[in-house]
Amino acid sequence: MLSSLPRKPGLGIALALTGALAPAAASAHVKWFAPYIVDAAPAPITRTLADPWFWTGIVLVLVFFIATRLVERTAAGETALDAMDRVTNPLWFRLDDFVRIVVAGFFVAIFSVGGVYLTPDLKTPAEWVSWLQLLIAAGIVSRKTMPLSAAGIIFLWVLALRDYDPFHLLDYLALGVAVAAYLVLESSEREDWRKHRFEVLRWGVAIALMWSSLEKFAYPEWFYPLVEEKPFLTFGIPRDMFIPMAGVAEFTMGFGLLATPLVRRLSAIALFVIFNAAVYPFGRVDLIGHALIMAIIVVIAVDHTRELHFWSWIRRALVGVPIGLAGALVIFATAYWGLHAAFYGTDTRTMAEIMAEEGEMATHSYSLEHPHGPQAMETLREGDELPPITPAELGDTSVADAYAQSMMGMHDEMMAGLRHEDPDVAFVLGMIPHHQGAIDMARIQLAAGTDAENMGLARHIIAEQQQEIDAMRAWLDARGIEMPGG
């Protein structure tokens, strides 16, 4: 099964920036858009356990956490927390207002983007979803209507789970449930409930980070194309060293958000720096997609609460650091590998086996929208539609001839579609080849062009026009209408 899913690779930015903050590295949680072969079996856990770089990362993290806990027990640790409290007091006293503004602003932002559920990468052709997002934003204005907004968030996640692969959306689900739970608790009149409102946000982000980090152990091959496209992300660290250590860093930084006050606040500060640094190379969509996570990280860094409500004795004890980390690794790894087997069975091939049989870049299915994905035509799978113009096919053909060929094909199909008797259907049947013509021209630009601005524009055209083609094809399918010629 091929499923178009947004996954989140660890970045070299994280390793470099956090290296300056602590002995352990952290990993930014950056979305990128690629249709992975998601039913491929995860690599055996023994592969990770035999990797010396995995254990190197674990040792560095344990040293950092234990050292921080030792400082936290002293007067210096209390002084550090008091200083953080004084600096963050202005926001702490208005923290609920901050959270509500960011959550409402996020839903206004994705309403403006349109065609998505709850992140820019979970797309939907349903226009009414955008208006529901606007209602969710409006409901956050009043505490009386916040539970309704919470219900709306859960409803949209249910729709996303219906349309997308559930296993690979579990980290997103944790975040959505946490935000909805915050809205319910914040609107409550019971103080014994309200005191947990920031805590549920912390757990939501921590679970999301720890769950998604396991992809770097289960599917390290998924990150090879990104590393090849953007080698600066690793800052020169060898790929097979970087990926497992980035996975350890992301998992442990998420784990750190559940620890004692100084550990969790330092972890949150490091993550906030990392997420902001990732916005520049990945753009504004990355900022929108991470807005809720970044806001919750700010909440964790600002939170003055010193009380630990769950398992406080083990979390405060030094021995609780290795015990807690080992327990978290066992629980999450067991759940990840076990649930994958439950969803897909145990007879599927691993990514290493797929790549050995189908090519070095067969990490996911071919897609015009994803320039960092596999570009070799032999990686196309059965049933994928072969684009009319590709860089490889351009060869010795002149650019002018390539453009002319693409326009002739577009014109004939467009005119055939426009002859339909229903004006609505005619519009869609005409626009699909029109958009495909724009994609073909953009492909030629990527094959023959050299101007960086035009290359970026071509990639944007491909992504936007293909999204609209998919929406129009879905509209036709819903009405049982076929394109001319089948």
Automatic annotation (TrEMBL):
InterPro entries: DUF305_CopM-like, Ferritin-like. The keyword Hydrolase does not apply. The keyword Zinc does not apply. Keywords: Membrane, Signal, Transmembrane, Transmembrane helix. Residues 377-476 form the DUF305 domain. Residues 1-28 form the signal peptide. It comes from the Bacteria. The chain crosses the membrane at residues 52-71, 98-119, 131-160, 167-185, 241-259, 288-305, 317-339. This is DUF305 domain-containing protein.
